[in-house]
Amino acid sequence: MIGFLKAGSVGEGFVVRLNKFVSPETLRIGDFVVIQGKIYQYFGIIDDLRIMSANEDVFFDPPDSDFKKAVLTGPIVFSEMSLSPYVMVDNSGNVLSIKTIPEHFSIARKATGEDLETVFMKKASIPFFVGNPLTMEEKIHVDLKKLCERNSAIFGITGSGKTFLARIVFSGIIKNDVASLLVFDMHNEYGFTAKSGEKRFPALKSFFPGKVKVFDAGTNPDADNYINIPLNHIKPQDLSLLSSSLHYSGQSEETAFLVYKRKGKNWLKYLFSLQGKSEEEVAKEAESIGVNASSLGAFLRHISRLSSLEFLQDTDEESSIEQMLDYLKSGVSVVVQFSGKYASDSLSYFIVANAITRRIHEKYSGLTEEEREKRRIVIVIEEAHKFLSSDLRDRNIFGTIAREMRKFNVTLFIIDQRPCEIDSEVLSQVGTRFVLQLLDERDTDAVFQGVGGGKRLKKILRTLQSQETLLFGHTVPMPVAMRVREYGKDFFNEVQEKKEDPLKGINDIYG
Ligand SMILES: Nc1ncnc2c1ncn2[C@@H]1O[C@H](COP(=O)(O)OP(=O)(O)OP(=O)(O)O)[C@@H](O)[C@H]1O
Ligand SMILES: [Mg+2]
Fold first, then answer.
1. Could you tell me whether strands 180-184 and 312-313 are parallel, antiparallel, or unpaired per DSSP bridges?
2. Among 167, 170, 196, which residue has the most ligand 1 atoms within 8 Å of its CB, making it the best to mutate?
3. What domains, with CATH codes, occur in the chain?
4. Tens of pLDDT along 64-92?
5. Which residues lie across from 34 on neighbouring strands?
């Protein structure tokens, strides 16, 4: 027992007075506490701790011995904690939302492993161990089936552990055949291996060689296939998404749409053919298609980098995208990587991610109910705010996926460090959020916008360190603060298909 219920309300939370023998130092914000009612057990999280006194006079003459302190502790000075109650469990183990309140003096105790199993694991269709409560060694499980049913997100500052957590969750999804993942892997951390500092870690393809295919925009000899995107797939709205990478503004955007209007789907091929031509020749062309000559010249300069992207090909064949879709439908996950000169290149990343995702949208959104793929697809994007800002709302395929594609069994998994820059409409469509450390107030405001009890969760978030996360939303019956499990040997042994060194025989070209 750590204390008893002193006051509270269903809406505002419970106040527990700590037992005189329990030091407030032994409790941490984010810990699970159970209040034992007569009929229900109430589950809550500590969201505040404070020390109090019943009589200020003692501070004029503070106790000078442990004995005197002990005499005062309890009747005169004492500690309290605030709890956010989230669920109550009845005698049959049913987990219910809070509808009643326990009586005064109901006993408060720390949650046990069994309690956590009841709340997080027993009712889950596909439970997967992702972390431990902040001050306990017990396991927290998430329901992977629910996680993939709606859009999800991992937010946190750089270095907080987003990618490591994502690899853990994705390993669970692949191992349990919950969905096919399509991971746009900007920094090459999800395919064969991932480099972190001086260390190298195995990644998804190493664990599941038979269930993961790596597609590469460059020429990595280990890849299963290479990306080719037909030039005529690229539309002006795709380039609008890239306008900041290509350093162009409204005028060029207009030019792009004008050229497209004139030349149709061959517009980029046409523009590439103008590259290297003299100013006069470009001016002549501009006149013939009715665009301003200097705007066309400027636009050609802005898009000059595009013509050096070898995966953009003058072909009608879209073999790599088709093959990717076939894999995804048949239950194989695809990691799209960027080796060699395309490594961490945001321009290549945006073009590839956008073109492929648009194709998936075209293919899936036309299907009737009977034709719909049974296989769930989860599309993963890192650096999501660059795709999902509100000024790109109208042309953004990822926003459309987030809003409309759940009924087609396609959902989005967002990984990002700047949630405040993501369109709030898209954020509101995110069913499950893992929130690691966030420091900027605008980001914390964004992740809790529209979330009931967000203010209290924010207090807990402030106390998190790296590799710790707050998880809340559709996937879990109540919010949970946890230490993400270690991405190390035990985990590798648990998930991988082959019981041998996952790094063996891997040609490492990502440096
Ligand atoms: N679950 C984990 N197990 C082991 N180490 C971890 C774990 N989570 C985080 N780390 C450590 O923290 C470091 C940063 O983690 P990670 O690369 O996932 O951060 P990030 O949030 O993705 O950062 P960035 O925004 O820069 O990509 C890792 O290099 C690793 O050393
Ligand atoms: Mg990362």
1. unpaired
2. 196
3. 3-111 (no CATH), 141-231+310-495 (3.40.50.300), 247-302 (no CATH)
4. 999 999 898 888 999 999 999 999 999 99
5. 43, 109
